[in-house]
Amino acid sequence: KNVLHISLASFATFVTLSNALATKPTQCRHDIDKLSCAQYVSNYDGNSLVFNILDVHPLLGSKLKFELADINTGNIRSKDKCEKSKAKQTKKLVAKLVKNSQRIDLINIEKSKAGKLKGDVLLDKVSLKDKLLKEKLAVSVDNKKYNWCK
To answer: What is the pTM of this model?
Structure first.
């Protein structure tokens, strides 16, 4: 009786795991302008991040450099103390938000003139770009001379 009980429990676990594995690819499907279920590696500043992309050849999907499109954040190497301070604050916030998210999707992907990938990052379906703009830690790329001391 115990052997039968253990066998049924093992079978139920196998079926549950099989179903979970079978549904994974449909939840994390890549598209022409979207990479789903990315894994965070690091970020240099507020708008330059590095990800691993699942189900992509390691030469292409390992340590993929990605930039947030259409925004600028403070420059970490700036000589302006206010800009440098904002840059460090933004870097910490971005790292915290990305690390604490359950799912990361890279959307609206384009190639820049330099050949880098750029677009937006969705953290649990919330735009990182919009969050940084709302928190006044990023500005539109059109805003060339921004006073970070405001």
So the answer is: 0.79
